[in-house]
Design brief:
Elements lengths: L3 H28 L3 H14 L4 H4 L5 H13 L8
Length: about 80
């Protein structure tokens, strides 16, 4: 199939766009100090975005992404300004 690489690339881009949108929603809530909402969105992300893992398995580790989001949402953020 001559367009196979393009097809795979477009699918990966669509998944990545969804990943970015969902991650940003979580990070916005965390940055605003809405920790409970950030944790809830993180749980939703981990429960739903994993459906893409099979098609993205060479490029994406869902378990790692969920662990990182859990760490971010459950810990305090310390901003250091120089």
């Amino acid at each position: 199939m001559p367009t196979r690489p393009q097809t795979v690339s477009w699918r990966l881009l669509l998944c990545h766009a969804e990943y970015c949108r969902l991650s940003v929603e979580i990070l916005i809530e965390k940055a605003l100090g809405h920790n409970t909402e950030a944790i809830e969105l993180s749980k939703q992300f981990c429960g739903t975005f994993g459906r893409h893992e099979i098609e993205m398995e060479r490029y994406y580790d869902h378990s790692l992404a969920c662990r990182v989001l859990e760490h971010i949402t459950r810990n305090s953020l310390k901003i250091i300004l120089n």
